[in-house]
Amino acid sequence: MLNRVATSTQTTQMMEHLQSSSSSLSEIEGQVASGKRIQQVSDDPTSAISALAQRAELTQTTQYTRNANDATDWLNTTDSALSSVVTALQSARTSLVQAQSGGLDSASRAAIASQLQASVQTLLSTANTTRLGRPIFAGTAGVTQAFDSSGNYLGDSGAVGRTVATGVNIGVNQTGDAVFGTYNASDPTTGNVFQLLGSLANAVSTGDTASITSGLSKLDSATARVENAQVAVGSTTNQVSGLLDQATTATSTLQSGINSLEDVDIAKASITLATRQMAYQAALSAAAKISQPTLLDFLR
Amino acid sequence: MPSFGGLGTALSGLEAQQRSMAVISQNITNVDTDGYSRKDVQLTGTGNPPGTALFSKSSEDGQGVSVQSVTRVRDQFLDSTARTAMSNQGAADQNATVLGQIESIVPEPSDSGLSSQMQKLWSAWSDASNSPDSVASRTALLSQATTVATTLNTASASMTTLRSGVVTQMSSAVAKVNSQTSQIAKLNSEIRTAIAAGVDPSDLQDQRDNDIDALSTSVGATTHANADGTVDVFLGGGTLVRADTSSDIKLTQSGTLDPPLDTLPLQKVAITWASGGDSVQGLGGQIGAMVTSVDTTIPRYLSQLDGVAASLVTTVNTLHETGQGLDPVNDVNLDFFDPTKTTAASISLSTDVAGQPSRVALAAAGAGTLDGSLGQQIAALANSTTGPDATYQAMVGGLGIETQSANDHSTVQDQIASTAQAARTSVSGVNLDEEMTNLIAAQRAYESAARLMTTIDSTLDTLINRTGLTT
């Protein structure tokens, strides 16, 4: 406590108080204008460090969402291709049963045979479905088609993966030989489904009922194989969908977490701003009052 | 019995009060002068001189008033307390300023800061891995990697520039210290001469005190007053000023920094005595804080930034070398970042992949051409607790905490210095009301002495001109 106050001390202290009041006023003005409570880490280190980690997580979760959407698209494309394959195989089966029953003349048999050949071509083109210029059944091979015109598999058995959550990489593709069967050059009837249908078409046109009968059970296994693939695609789609939901929820949680850490509470800040403005004005008027009278004013 | 002695008494009163008013007017005109110490007049009654000569007789009641001394009001203890506080304030403010500047070089949290750029890099790896056949994704990946490298380059360059800026500031501060010490030495010599000659050296002493205050803020000097009126100024164990000689200090840059920062291409800055070359011990104040900034603080953060760059280069390259680009024969064992450039200032894309997006290894070696598993592994580095993101976040967090603490420390030191200076000024500062009151007293005393002289004059007049005359 000073017992004696020099005249210059009055001025110095008044300036210091005005400076401090003015700087806390400009600090709150900066917060309100930018909407951010934390302009740099030193404003509130613990919150800022936490916000940095959450921002990183948010970017990753957004990426997982993007990957999951891409995966879903791939799976949906695969699923509709497989559906049309199953439909085609079922209608081929119907034609074959018709041919098996016997009592058909060669003209009808020839008609059924050419129908079967046509469905082989349709199946081949479905098996070569592409998505964004890339065949979906070719695995990770860099080819333009999964199967060539004679049914040879041109792809590989690689998995196309999508990272949809931390440490979770899901394979979203079905490889051509796993779905349609392995190509067998020497024995077409035990080869893939294109070879099988091709040889069945021949059997129908020649009237080889025995081959047709054994071929039918092979066709059933081939159809079952495609249907299994479809089931696998379906369950993967569900898995991805669940993880996508999680990612979406996580995104909004993280975003609101970041906002609560970094953003200024406008209501609270506005009140603080008004309070500090008042304090500054009070300091100014106090300074004006103190510096006015000296003894000189009162002497004759 | 009236005598001429009374006139002498009255005259002494007039002279003393005139001197008093002169001193008061000096105080009043200097009310706003920085560092001015007010002067106080001590009056004393003049008694009879002892041991008179035979047969002489002087007045029994005293011979008036005289000015015993005009003292400069200054408290040495408050001075040294204020100087210590100013030295600490100088150091704390300088430290906080530099840390604030380092923080502005790595602004976080931000959507365009390095943390965000690195996260976007991992996303770009993920996008490219999802479609390895897309040249556009690969190109975007290379572009984002270049952005990260450039951000690191710029941050490192800015820190180096900041350091050079502080070194430049230091050399001009050192030059100023040298000119102040030689000024103090000169003033010492003048003050000693003035005291010996009986001349009032107050203004010279005030100037010297101001110079010493500035030295305290700059380097944290301490003082010792000598009997002959000179002041010695010490710094650490050495002497800046001894009586009328001063010793210069100089700034030297040589050798490497102390370990573990000796790997940085920076020279250690030290303050040494110009004669002898020993380094100055116990350096405080602003220059002391600047030495810490350039030799420890800034290099430490530069080194941490280098650590982030090195971690990025190593973790990505280690995985990348195990992968293959679109050409499984030729695009193997490639580096993504240049492995010879692992500092923040130099990090850049390797010539293996720069401008050649098809050579970026997204596929695992031996897998299909359009495999993306390796790229996805690299993208997963975003989660690594030992990877570049974690290193960078730790660095920025540490910097934020250190800066906040320095700001708080600086605020406290400002207040301490302000209080210490107010205490000092309360003793030696001029208070106008006090001076005006003293002026009134002196004025009235002068009037009384003048009145006294008139009265004695009239009694003498009565005695001389009217006693015993008949007409």
What is the topology, as strand order, of the major beta sheet of chain A?
1-2
Largest sheet of chain B: 4 strands, antiparallel
Radius of gyration of chain B: 39 Å
Outline type of chain B:
rod-shaped
Give a count of the beta strands of chain B, DSSP E runs of length 2 or more: 10
Distance between the termini of chain B: 24 Å
Secondary-structure element sequence of chain B? HEEHHHHEEEEEEHEEHHH
Largest sheet of chain A: 2 strands, antiparallel
- Oligomeric category: heterodimer
CATH secondary-structure class of the largest domain in chain A = Mainly Alpha
What is the CATH architecture descriptor of the largest domain in chain A?
Up-down Bundle
- Count of DSSP strands of chain A: 4
Summed up, the helix count of chain B is 9
Summed up, the domain count of chain A is 2
Mean pLDDT of chain B: 92
